[in-house]
Specification:
With about 850 residues, this protein is of the alpha+beta class. Among the domains are: about 150 residues, 2-Layer Sandwich (Aldehyde Oxidoreductase, domain 4); about 190 residues, Aldehyde Oxidoreductase, domain 4 (2-Layer Sandwich); about 190 residues, Aldehyde Oxidoreductase, domain 4 (2-Layer Sandwich). About 30% of the residues lie in helices and about 25% in strands. It has an 8-stranded mixed β-sheet, sandwiched between helices. The protein has a 6-stranded mixed β-sheet with strand order 7-15-14-13-8-30. Strands 16-27-28-29 form a 4-stranded mixed β-sheet, with helices on both faces. The radius of gyration is 28 Å and the shape is globular. The two termini are about 50 Å apart. The structure holds ligand MTE and dioxothiomolybdenum(VI) ion. Ligand MTE binds next to helix 15 and helix 17. This is Xanthine dehydrogenase molybdopterin binding subunit. It comes from Microlunatus ginsengisoli.
């Protein structure tokens, strides 16, 4: 057991990590007392309100910008334009995102901002600004950009083995095209920043940001100032989900610029429509693939090209794409593989991080392949998946050994047992036989997700811990709180390391002047990184206090243990109270505060060759989902979900279970309900986001929750490489929702003859499911299941005479594109 992962030997009842406690701010959240950035406006005197001037055309040159009419509107104080920028007019780190653009790159792009005494005056002022444009042809669909060869950024390839040989030796080769949708973050709190300048010119920006240090850097470069002149604070976010990793910077910069120019506090909060039309989303992807299987159903080779829909600028598209390429294997051994990646440049909002950060977009491709090919191989999808799992000694396509592959089997078997799959599948077979117009099915899918930032430098963190003379403890760390429970975990870590009860520890809001140069709270690594840093700071203090207590107890410092607020000498009953030790330390002039630091050891990644060991470890999980589909409408319900998930030795089980449930539901939303639609017609609304409200963009709600939802944390799952033996939990559970999609596929297939391969759009809305089951049922009417033939492959594609023992196959017509979203063809 490593020093980092080891828990105190005094036993789990005596320390705070691992205890099932509620979120540290739960009471504030549910009573409405929790403060978010915009709540501070009411407490800020003389605050100005900023409002964007959006231009509603997908692509154009700005030929005229006349702000004078805005100044006629009572209450308007100032219009901010490009001329006002003292530093760099750019909101990103790639320098491809002008903050005040002279060219419109997506429908709703903001060209300038109006500052006014009230929000209403700012809105009217923005409406009065005159913008004239010269429209240009716009690329909306990812396929438009592919056809126009409009790409941006790097085009990496992950490659291992000999993919041609792998496909040549295959007994069965299939190929297909699959286009799947992005996702709106729909955090409850929209983007928001509040800035003011103090008497010495120090700029203080409160921002709803997952990456305060980068917000600070962008504000500094826009203002032409140094980082030490800017402080960014994030109290908490009402959800971030990756949408506030890169996107808040420009909004914070506008507020800060307004504050510098007017000398007054400036607030910029997007309303929901602005947030939906201006901020980036999960990348939708286009994927083309060719896969080979041997006679046992083992994958022999996979060749794929993934094209991410990047939107108008790069933002985080390159690392998102890299993670997609690094996750196309999911839990499966693919000996020969070549995956090419590229980023389409389209005239849409700039797509960005979203829970899973490209991982889901890679994994959906292999899960779709397995779900579609299993019937063609004459195997149950479960069986095909299981046969291809990684085993000991194998490594990923980018060369990282897969540690603990036995855990894939452990979670898989755990789900099969917990969900009683054998019994329920037998019941479902009876149900389906008795119900021609309703079908049930269970989908089971695994998750393997790499933890750490691909970019090695981001895997560091800092903390600042103060012990005051009265023994109370205040901790700061570099991570932000967005509802995921990071602060709760950090309090538990600090209390455990110092050996004090939870109540002794308080956590202060995240600020760049307390802990500098932080990484985004992202990649699920918040607890690993900041937990390491908090633990390190607390250890420095504890070691000093062990000296003080040892002297008082008359034993060596090495024989002192702090347990639950008391310093004991090993083997003795009586001890000295924590407060007493702290007071003594103060009078002995012993330092009672410390800066902590942590860097993840053992990582390396070469982004040019796309090889290395970028991840500290993998998080594993497995889900089984039962659905029921109505044959007349395609409408469906999720009847039951069972999950076994690996969080290592949990730091905070209630938090972790909440993350698993929330992640799963958010993933199910992406895969089944949330249908982003962009106007791709040639009218004046070309490029407009049609789903720009909760009325047209369907989010999962209570009514979609499964009535039975069981989450089990994998036991005996200690992780050597992370703080107190835990594993990251934020993102991996989202991908457990593939089980919903695969269940829908199998239920649709049940409307057809045995062995029907179902092509399912993503999102699998009731409409998409209806198309899929209708196509499956058509196979039934034509009796193709009984007369299917085995054909595939590079090795001759003529249908052979029907063989009663062979798995059923479907003729070419089964695979033609009908949903407009995906198609499967044999080569
Ligand atoms: N949970 C809640 N409630 N709200 C969020 O915004 N973001 C997710 C996940 N869980 C999020 C969440 C994302 S995208 C990430 S990367 C992680 O939390 C970040 O936090 P962590 O690193 O502390 O897990
Ligand atoms: Mo999460 S997408 O890494 O913020």
């Amino acid at each position: 057991m490593s020093h980092l992962s080891q828990r105190p030997e005094s036993g789990p009842d005596s320390y705070e990590v691992g205890k099932a406690i509620p979120h540290e701010a739960a009471a504030l959240h549910v009573t409405g007392r929790a403060l978010y950035t915009d709540d501070l406006v009411a407490r800020t005197k003389d605050c100005l309100h900023a409002y964007p001037v959006q231009v509603f055309v997908a692509k154009a040159k700005v030929t005229k910008l006349d702000t004078a009419p805005a100044y006629q509107v009572p209450g308007v104080v100032r219009v901010l334009t490009a001329e006002d920028v003292p530093g760099v007019n750019d909101a990103g780190v790639k320098h491809d995102e002008p903050l005040f653009p002279s060219e419109i790159r997506f429908f709703g792009h903001a060209v300038c901002y109006v500052l006014a005494e009230s929000l209403e005056a700012a809105r009217l002022g923005a409406a009065a600004v005159v913008v004239e444009v010269e429209p240009e042809p716009a690329l909306i669909e990812v396929t438009d950009a592919i056809a126009a060869r409009e790409f941006q950024g790097a085009q990496p390839t992950v490659e291992r083995g000999d993919v041609e040989a792998g496909l040549n030796e295959a007994a069965h080769v299939f190929s297909g095209v699959f286009e799947f949708a992005g996702q709106e973050h729909f955090y409850l709190e929209t983007h928001c920043a509040l800035a003011h300048v103090d008497e010495a010119g120090q700029i203080f920006v409160q921002s709803s940001t997952q990456h305060p240090s980068e917000t600070q850097e962008i504000v500094a470069h826009v203002l032409g100032k140094h980082s030490h002149e800017i402080t960014v604070q994030c109290l908490r976010m009402g959800g971030g989900f990756g949408g506030k990793e890169m996107q808040p910077h420009g909004f914070a910069a506008v507020a800060a610029l307004g504050a510098v120019i007017t000398g007054r506090p400036v607030r910029l909060r997007l309303n929901r429509t602005q947030d939906l039309t201006m901020s980036g989303k999960r990348h939708g992807f286009h994927a083309e693939w060719r896969v080979g299987f041997d006679d046992a159903g083992l994958i022999t080779g996979l060749e794929a090209t993934l094209t991410a829909d990047g939107g108008w600028s790069l933002d985080l598209s390159e690392p998102v794409l890299a993670r997609a390429l690094c996750h196309i294997d999911n839990a499966y051994w693919i000996p020969n593989i070549r995956v090419n990646g590229r980023i389409a440049k389209t005239n849409k909002t700039s797509n960005t991080a979203f829970r899973g950060f490209g991982g889901p977009q890679g994994m959906i491709v292999i899960e779709d392949i397995l779900g579609r090919c299993a019937p063609l191989l004459g195997l149950e999808a479960d069986e095909l998946r299981r046969r291809n799992f990684y085993s000991e000694g194998q490594s990923t396509p980018y060369g990282q050994p897969v540690r603990h592959p036995d855990r894939i089997r452990a979670v898989w078997e755990g789900v099969h047992d917990a969900a009683e799959l054998d019994r329920r599948r037998a019941e479902i077979a009876e149900f389906n036989a008795a119900h021609p117009h309703r079908k049930r099915a269970i989908g089971v899918t695994p998750v393997k997700f790499g933890i750490s930032f691909n970019l090695t430098a981001f895997n560091q963190a800092g903390a600042l811990v103060h012990v005051y003379k009265d023994g109370s403890v205040l901790i700061n760390h570099g991570g932000t709180e967005m509802g995921q429970g990071l602060h709760t975990k950090m309090i538990q870590v600090a209390a455990t390391t110092l050996g004090v009860p939870l109540e002794k520890v308080r956590l202060a809001p995240t600020r760049t002047d307390k802990v500098p140069n932080t990484s985004a709270t992202a990649a699920s690594s918040g607890a690993d990184l900041n937990g390491g840093a908090v633990k390190n700071a607390c250890e420095q203090i504890r070691i000093r206090l062990e000296q003080v207590a040892g002297a008082a107890l008359g034993v060596s410092a090495a024989d002192v243990r702090f347990v639950d607020g008391t310093a004991y000498a090993l083997g003795r009953e009586a001890g000295i109270a924590w407060e007493e030790v702290v007071k003594t330390a103060y009078f002995q002039r012993v330092q009672l505060f410390a800066a902590g630091y942590y860097r993840t050891e053992g990582l390396h990644w070469d982004s040019t060759t796309m090889t290395g060991s970028p991840f500290k470890y993998f998080a594993y999980g497995c889900a089984a989902t039962e659905v029921e589909v109505d044959g007349f409408t395609g409408a469906y319900t999720t009847r039951r979900v069972d999950i076994v998930h690996d969080v290592g030795d949990s730091l905070s089980p209630l938090i972790d279970i909440g993350q698993i449930e929330g992640g799963f539901v958010q993933g199910a939303g992406w895969l089944t309900l949330e249908d982003l639609r962009w106007d791709s017609g040639d009218g004046p609304n070309r490029g407009r986001l049609s789903t720009q409200a909760a009325s047209t963009y369907k989010l999962p709600s209570f009514s979609e929750l499964p009535p039975e939802f069981n989450v089990i944390l994998l036991e005996r799952a200690h992780e050597e490489g992370a703080v107190y033996g835990s594993k990251a939990v934020g993102e991996p559970p989202l991908m457990l929702a593939f089980s919903v999609r695969e269940a829908l596929r199998e239920a649709a297939a049940a409307f057809g003859p045995p062995g029907t391969s179902v092509d399912l759009g993503s999102p699998a809305t009731p409409e998409a499911v209806w198309w899929a089951l209708t196509e499956a049922a058509r196979g039934h009417e034509q009796g193709q299941g009984e007369h299917g033939h085995v054909t595939d492959g590079l090795n001759g594609s003529h249908p052979e005479p029907s063989d009663p023992d062979a798995p059923e196959r479907h003729p070419e017509s089964e695979f033609r594109q009908y949903t407009g979203l995906s198609s499967l063809t044999r080569t």
